[in-house]
Amino acid sequence: xxxxxxxxxxxxxxxxxxxxxxxxxxxxxxxxxxxxxxxxxxxxxxxxxxxxxxxxxxxxxxxxxxxxxxxxxxxxxxxxxxxxxxxxxxxxxxxxxxxxxxxxxxxxxxxxxxxxxxxxxxxxxxxxxx
Length: 130
Hints:
The protein is of the alpha/beta class and 130 residues long. It is built from five helices and four strands. It has one domain (2-103): 2-Layer Sandwich (Transcription Regulator spoIIAA), CATH 3.30.750. Helices cover 45% and strands 13% of the residues. The longest helix has 22 residues, at 108-129. The radius of gyration is 20 Å and the shape is globular. It starts with a helix and ends with a helix. The relative contact order is 0.12.
């Protein structure tokens, strides 16, 4: 497991004036398979879910893993929506943040019951088709 933490990675420090194309170019030009993106305190470019999706897509296309290095809750929320790994610092292992559930919490039992109901509906539909 230690080898994962100490694998070679390219650290890209995002400048406040960088736009999404600058970041994508830096990801594509990276020589390493893991690219750690370190945004500044006020990174406007990372406040858009579209831009986060573009970063994820660019990394995937380049056969790289992009990781955001941030503790900013709003950026972490967007990363969770796009399944982009996040870490609090360059030494910590990255993980995909959990998306916050708006409104009521859904228990595991409710999810299981809903799935079982879906299966029953499928079976009823199949019986009607015959």
